[in-house]
Structure formats: C-alpha cells, structure tokens
Amino acid sequence: MFHGSMVALVTPMHEDGAVDYTSLAKLVEFHIEHGTDGIVAVGTTGESATLDEDEHCEVIRRTVELAAGRIPIIAGTGANSTTEAISLTRCALQAGADACLLVTPYYNKPTQEGLYLHHKAIAEAVPIPQILYNVPGRTACDMLPDTVERLSHISNIVGLKDATGDLDRLRDLRERCGDRIDLYSGDDPTGMEFMLQGGQGVISVTANVAPADMHAMCVAARGGDRDAATRINDRLDGLHHALFLEANPIPVKWALYRMGLIPAGIRLPLTPLSEPYREQVTEALRRAGVVD
C-alpha cells in the first residue's frame, strides 16, 4: 500500500516549545518537492510523547491539509494505553490521514498476548489502514514474529515498521506473513539491505535532511540495483549514524536548524544537541552534499 522513502517527520517548534505551523508547511513542501514517498506525522521522531492529545491531533490535521492529497500521510497514533491509542487513531481517521503507525506500548512491557489484543482492539475499533511499529531499543517491548504473523490476518493491519536492524528477522517475517503485510525498515543504517532483501521501504530519520537521495536510494534498492543503491547510500552513511549521536530527534532537529529549515525548538526532557557533537553532524551533512 505504501512504499519507498517515508520520512519520520520532526515536529518543528519555536524556541519556547510551541509548535511552529509555518515551518511545518515549509517541511511538507520540501518533501513533496524532493520526492519523498510518504510523511509520517507525529511519530516518535515527531516528539509524540510530549505533545498533548489536542496538539497531536492538530499536527495530524494540519499535515493532511498541507499535503492536500499530493503525498500519503501516515499518522503516528501509538500509545501505551490502548484507550488512548484508539482515541488518537480515531482522530487521524477524522483528519483524513491515509494510515496510522502504532508503536508497541512502552514501559509497561505487555506479554505477546497483550500486544496481540492491544493491536487487535485498535484495528477493530477504527477502520483505517494500520502499520505496526516495533522498536524494542526504545520501548523495552519486542513484538515477536509469531505475534506479527497473528496480526497480519487482520484486514486493516497492512504493514510493519521494524527497527531492530535484524535482517534474519526480515526473512522470517516474509516467510510467515507472505504478501499479507508490507515490511518497512525503521533502521536507516540497514535500510538499503532491508529493501534489497524484499522490504517495501524505509520510514527514515535521514530522509528529514536528505529526501532526494533517500528517495533515489529506495528506488534503486527496491528495483534490485545494488550498485546504484550502494553509491547513494555511501554518501548518506555518515548521516545514518550522526543523526543518532544523541537520542532521536535531538540531532536531526539540530541538523534541520543548521540547514535553516526550522527553529531550534525542542521540548523537555529533550534538549538541543550537545556542543561536542555539532561538528560531527555538520560534517555528515557536508559529506552528503546537504550543506556547504
């Protein structure tokens, strides 16, 4: 249903932490102009944890409105409360989002049966395409392939974003789920190989700052052109790593600020990128041809 380079979009903020909707409009146009294949609004890179529910819904609504049907909008609506996730997912449906991305519940460490019932409840409550999101390094919760396989039989669960970086797991998931769901990488360093081995795309942090190259790399990788994909990915490799020198989205928001695309705002408990890392991020931007 969705494919290619999908950006895990930051939520731009003013210095006081208020959402900057003018910069959001600029970012949406930036991605449409540079070939991004889809926008994830208010995912975890979009600081969903520190936006209240009204802000969360408003950013989704504005992003859909700004895109005006020119690019798919996938709304981040996951929560560690099933009731809250259903509420946010309903909001996304009402706003006109094309799909929702639902991170596994964080902190409360549900069992695999709990994960199955959580996502089943959301899918049954809200008739919108839904993409599962497994990122155990951030949530302390790992949705195992057996659980993904069970969920893949629910008609409006259409995909999985897997951020484990485990390519053996990709092969296992492909065997288990067949063509019932699409598989997306949530790990930029292994995203190219993920697509060469059959994944349909990447939901990317790097795409925030290098959208044209990420799109081109995805086209090559999905087309099986390893050489072309590698040439592009080699330029981006420094960004894949530099944008995680501190917790995401700290480095990518600073990079976008350095590029003049957004103000420097970020919400506590996150803080602006530490001074010692700024030259490393700038150098990665230079090597990728993003800044001079």
From TrEMBL:
Chief subcellular location: cytoplasm
Pfam families noted in UniProt: DHDPS (PF00701)
Signal peptide start-end: none
Pathway(s) of this molecule: Amino-acid biosynthesis; L-lysine biosynthesis via DAP pathway; (S)-tetrahydrodipicolinate from L-aspartate: step 3/4
Active site location: Y133 (proton donor/acceptor), K161 (schiff-base intermediate with substrate)
Function, as annotated: Catalyzes the condensation of (S)-aspartate-beta-semialdehyde [(S)-ASA] and pyruvate to 4-hydroxy-tetrahydrodipicolinate (HTPA).
Organism: Thiohalobacter thiocyanaticus
Site (L-lysine inhibitor binding): A49, N80, E84, Y106
Protein name, as recorded: 4-hydroxy-tetrahydrodipicolinate synthase
Cellular component aspect of the GO annotation: cytosol
Record SMART domains: DHDPS (SM01130)
High-level lineage: Bacteria, Pseudomonadati, Pseudomonadota, Gammaproteobacteria, Thiohalobacterales
Coiled coil: none
EC number(s) reported in the record: 4.3.3.7
Residue(s) at site: Part of a proton relay during catalysis: T44, Y107
Catalyzed reaction equations: L-aspartate 4-semialdehyde + pyruvate = (2S,4S)-4-hydroxy-2,3,4,5-tetrahydrodipicolinate + H2O + H(+)
Localization of this protein: Cytoplasm
Subunit (UniProt): Homotetramer; dimer of dimers.
Entries under CDD domains matching the protein: DHDPS
Assigned keywords, A-Z: Amino-acid biosynthesis, Cytoplasm, Diaminopimelate biosynthesis, Lyase, Lysine biosynthesis, Schiff base
Gene Ontology molecular function: any one: 4-hydroxy-tetrahydrodipicolinate synthase activity
Protein family per UniProt: Belongs to the DapA family.
UniProt-listed GO biological process terms: diaminopimelate biosynthetic process; lysine biosynthetic process via diaminopimelate
